[in-house]
Design brief:
The structure is a homodimer. The first copy, chain A, is of the alpha/beta class. Chain A has 16 helices and nine strands.
């Protein structure tokens, strides 16, 4: 399993062909997902029932020759375990019933114990590993401290996240206290996922790109580095590659590559070759086609795959993916075209 | 008037203090705007009634020592004049009743005549100039071809604009035909605004940053260049500075600076000093505080203004602004703090 092309690519070792997986590959574009989701009753219940989380995790692998599975879960499991009360209504974004707005709110937060407070996630990881039976590696994940803080303060999604930003400007000490407890929680959570069997770990910094450069360094990057360092000092997690994905933060690729992570996720607003030129051989790169390409024709999809592979060049260290999650309206057949094109067009190119 | 600090800064000439205006300065954060908006009955009617458009254009100038007025209008006046049927419902985004989806739809589109089909805009420009009485310069504006094409194809806002992107991939020739007729329309519209009295012109490429780099160059940048060149060959507009703002497209600043525009608008995800280092003395820069800063305390606002001015440095060629439009929930007093801080902290710095 350690020789699987996905794990080899993350270590920047030669592969037979470029590995590919897709963010949100277990998701609403699949009718079988929608059926399991309906059976679960709610999105949160789907996340919290290991048997069902395992079922949807495996669904895309039954259809497509994907090179990795990713745990079906949500980045807000940690705030939920901290007592903030997660719910996700159909057709709306997530909500936290008890947002944290004051120093007193934040002082009360503790680091959840993964094997008790987030046991359902660890059980799902163990069950998925058993069911996968070493077919492909399993990726575990968490949200970044900044991204989780955005939701924990705002209590829901937002186009601007003005509340967390205002806290960062007006009371940076309190914001750092919050980010520190989240970072320690994320590190413990990811280490526990590794111990339960996750073979790669990914941190989604979905809202890092909403920050001005100086704020990004102080309130997002700093805690991504802290997590990478904490995982390096964990006996199991130190050997599990860490992928960092700061969406919209292409101005910071060099700094992200210096955190000690194994790979960077990239959105589609930078050419793979330009990103590679900037980070050199420090990290592998994961990405990065515009998810909208799956609304184009099969010929256009193949052409875009070809251009992305050419942009990266015949080097080791590329994991193919979209630059953001696959969207619900996509025809699954188009994803099949993309995956086949990645494997065919990259076959025996890097050896 | 030609010596006003706003126009001098756009020409990168020394100024007494850094000029400042704010995107969406005539907008919902002002109670007097909401009153006029209610009187107008609909947003579209507000745009189409020169007297009311003039009234809201001038409202922020009565409160704050702003250094420019910007025509109150909407980027979708051109698609509306092409017959697509604009409406904007309260609390929702804009809608076009007749989106263009096929080659046949696109073949039917013509370039609107500004003085007949968009007469209400030209009348508003003339009226505002008269009422301004040379107090400050007036900015005219339009949407970019790519951004207008997004709305014209999708028929509404979208988080991904998958339809226009799919057309660009599947039938680039048809997409170019659409972008060309829009670019010619935008150039004619901006030239007419200049003839009617606009003293600076701005193009909002709101959705350029949603494009992968190669697509940005082919489907957005190319038409921004076309507009800049067409305006250069217009007897009046050639002397009116053109500001290009491609939100989220910081990877393309050098190319945008080479279009022949006078200035670039910047969002807040790049440091002003870094942007200036990249474009050198080719263009002035406009921006770029995170609009969320207006939710912070007056002290934090002043500190962020100070940092932005320091980042740009004591050079000519800076127009202060936010990095995106001011949001409806802002306390107007906080905008007053920002404007005062810009003038005070930059006074006699560049001379």
């Amino acid at each position: 399993m350690n020789d699987h092309r996905f794990l080899r690519a993350l270590r920047r070792e030669p592969v037979d062909c470029t590995p590919v997986w897709i963010m949100r590959q277990a998701g609403r574009y699949l009718p079988e997902y929608r059926a399991t989701r309906a059976k679960a009753g709610s999105f949160v219940n789907l996340c919290k029932t290991p048997q069902l989380a395992c079922e949807v995790t495996l669904q895309p692998l039954a259809r497509f020759p994907l090179d990795a599975a990713i745990l079906f879960s949500d980045i807000l499991t940690i705030p939920d375990a901290m007592g903030l009360g997660l719910s996700v209504e159909e057709g709306e974004g997530p909500r936290l019933a008890h947002p944290v707005r004051t120093r007193e709110d934040i002082d009360k937060l503790g680091v959840p114990d993964p094997e008790t407070d987030l046991r359902y996630v660890m059980d799902a990881v163990r069950l998925i590993r058993r069911e996968l039976n070493d077919q492909v590696p399993l990726i575990g994940f968490a949200g970044s401290p900044w991204t989780l803080a955005c939701y924990m303060i705002e209590g829901a999604g937002s186009s601007s996240f003005a509340r967390p930003k205002a806290l960062a400007w007006d009371d940076p000490q309190t914001m750092h206290k919050l980010l520190d407890v989240i970072a320690r929680s994320v590190a413990a959570y990811l280490a526990a996922q590794a111990a339960a069997g996750a073979q790669a770990l990914m941190v989604f910094d979905t809202w890092g790109g909403l920050l001005a450069p100086e704020m990004f360094r102080e309130f997002s990057l700093r805690y991504l580095s802290q997590i990478a360092q904490m995982l390096q000092s964990d006996n199991v997690a130190r050997d599990v590659p860490l992928i960092l994905f700061s969406k919209g933060a292409n101005g910071h690729l060099e700094a992200l590559a210096d955190t000690g992570c194994a790979a960077l996720g990239l959105d589609w607003t930078i050419a793979l070759g330009d990103a590679r030129a900037r980070v050199g051989n420090r990290v592998a790169l994961q990405g990065n086609l515009d998810p909208a390409v799956l609304h184009a024709s099969p010929d256009a999809i193949r052409a875009e795959v070809k251009k992305a592979l050419a942009s990266f060049g015949p080097h080791p260290g590329h994991v193919f993916n979209l630059g953001h999650g696959i969207t619900p309206e996509v025809n699954p057949d188009n994803l099949g075209v993309l995956i086949e094109a990645v494997h065919e067009q990259s076959f025996c190119r890097v050896g």
